[in-house]
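Reminder to self: tokens first, then the designed residues, so the page reads top to bottom the way the pipeline ran.
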């Protein structure tokens, strides 16, 4: 069954394959009522999504997913027009460009040349990442699939892998709070050991519902959220990749999550 809510969605503003407008239209077609746009390290897709959503009567929650060391921190209801937030995020974008060039250099030394043009469009539009390089390797005929590109070259430990500049979870949480948003720990299962520290740093929520989590995991995460006084969120981490098993809206997110998120956000801004 399709859930009415998906609070973890990527677009072409980072490494998703659908534009913000296309995501909103797909969500509408699938009967969703609320979608949060949470691109990696950028809010550049939010305005387009809000605009399209207003026209078709869907609710879009502005968001971001900041890649910190060890943890990804989702930021909901951030002020996506905040100059400070955008400046801080642009730092990540510039670092990603440098890193993409380094990865292309490594591929070149393996005799797997890629022209910069092959990923330039992605680089210009948003946040360039390994998925773009993987796709370019497929398009150039160097590998047969995205999986092979990651498995042989792009995953940690493989010869073309270059780590990305990452901030600390504490800084990510602060950036989100400074922009008026609610920081939530994304896909937290393997990093719950950090939870106490993150809560001390100002974390306010936990992504208890995630595409690959079973009932047992979700119930443990629900308990942790309750123990730490955190709100719960959930989503699919949709990227629109071909064959993506869990497509938009396929996680049953409790509908009260959105009301709780909005209430917490209102209390932060004192309105
Ligand atoms: P980056 O932020 O550039 O390091 O790229 C990370 C993104 O690559 C993740 O968000 C995933 O979407 C994608 N990714 C990571 N590992 C794999 C893999 N083995 N196969 C396909 N996609 C992957
Ligand atoms: Zn991604
Ligand atoms: Fe993530
Ligand atoms: Fe994600």
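Designed residues (271 positions):
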């Amino acid at each position: 069954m399709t859930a009415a809510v998906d609070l973890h969605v990527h677009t072409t503003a980072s490494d998703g394959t659908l534009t913000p407008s296309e995501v909103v239209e797909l969500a509408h077609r699938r009967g969703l009522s609320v979608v949060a746009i949470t691109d990696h390290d950028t809010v550049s897709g939010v305005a387009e999504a809000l605009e399209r959503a207003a026209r078709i009567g869907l609710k879009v929650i502005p968001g971001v997913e900041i890649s910190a060391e060890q943890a990804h921190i989702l930021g909901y209801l951030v002020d996506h027009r905040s100059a400070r937030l955008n400046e801080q995020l642009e730092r990540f974008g510039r670092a990603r460009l440098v890193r993409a060039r380094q990865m292309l250099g490594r591929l070149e030394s393996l005799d797997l040349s890629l022209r910069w043009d092959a990923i330039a469009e992605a680089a210009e539009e948003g946040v360039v990442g390994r998925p773009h390089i993987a796709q370019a390797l497929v398009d150039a005929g160097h590998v047969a699939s995205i999986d092979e590109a990651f498995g042989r070259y792009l995953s940690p430990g493989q010869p073309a892998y270059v780590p990305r500049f990452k901030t600390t979870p504490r800084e990510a949480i602060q950036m989100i709070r400074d922009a008026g948003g609610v920081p939530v720990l994304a896909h937290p299962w393997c990093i719950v050991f950090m939870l106490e520290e993150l809560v001390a740093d100002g974390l306010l929520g936990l992504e208890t519902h995630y595409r690959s989590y079973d009932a047992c995991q979700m119930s443990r995460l629900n308990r942790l959220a309750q123990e730490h006084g955190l709100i719960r969120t959930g989503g699919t981490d949709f990227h629109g990749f071909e064959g993506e098993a869990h497509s938009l809206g396929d996680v049953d997110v409790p509908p009260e999550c959105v009301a709780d998120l909005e209430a917490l956000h209102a209390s932060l801004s004192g309105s």
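Residues 65, 72, 186-187 surround fe (iii) ion (ligand 3) (CB under 6 Å).
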